[in-house]
């Protein structure tokens, strides 16, 4: 029998047990963008803002799922689809692209569509007040006229830049892995959960 009630207290407790330095903020949203559960050091007003942002980004991304899926070559499962039940194959294809990861000016955001239609959002925001977008000119290499002065500063800057880039990539990979782990757990725990869509606003 499908569940008809979402125990947000239990979900909030689980989210709080899995937040940390890598993912300090986790949100669970309804299909309409309503904040259902959260764990974060951020104030409630900021969480509502982040929930609205995540929902807006997801609605922008959602219409492109079919076109993105069609752009990929067929998988082994699709080639041998005659060996797979048609309904399960449809479900797998429907959730093939269920996650987007976005790099913001002050951190990372991952949005995952759970099988029960809820949205799980993971955030790694470096500060309370978001910084303005960084222009490309701010991260370009120094003018060529400063090179060749024998100081070796350019080489040091290049090495530091590469080290910082590697560190950022490592942080993104760790963030993505932990976010995926929590998302899979939520899918398992909420398996069979059905949303009540009587007024269509949940």
Name the descriptors.
single chain; 202 residues; alpha+beta; Beta-Lactamase; five-stranded antiparallel β-sheet; 6 helices; 43% helix; 15% strand; disordered N terminus; Roadblock/LAMTOR2 domain-containing protein
Q: Can you tell me about this structure?
A:
- It comes from Golovinomyces cichoracearum.
- This is Roadblock/LAMTOR2 domain-containing protein.
- The protein has six helices and five strands; from the N terminus they run αββααααβββα.
- The protein has one domain: Dynein light chain 2a, cytoplasmic (Beta-Lactamase, 2-Layer Sandwich).
- By secondary structure, the protein is an alpha+beta fold.
- Helices cover 43% and strands 15% of the residues.
- A five-stranded antiparallel beta sheet has the order 2-1-5-4-3, with helices on both faces.
- The N terminus is likely disordered.
Mean pLDDT over the full residue set: 72
Arrangement of strands in the largest sheet = 2-1-5-4-3
> Quick one: CATH class?
Alpha Beta
Shape, per Cα inertia axes: globular
Q: Give the amount of beta strand, in percent.
A: 5-15%
Order of helices and strands: HEEHHHHEEEH
Number of strands: 5
Q: How much helical structure, as a percent, in the residues?
A: 40-55%
CATH homologous superfamily placement: Dynein light chain 2a, cytoplasmic
**Largest sheet: number of strands, sense, barrel closure:** 5 strands, antiparallel
CATH topology: Beta-Lactamase
Individual helix count: 6
Distance between the termini: 21 Å
| CATH architecture assignment name | 2-Layer Sandwich
Count of domain modules: 1
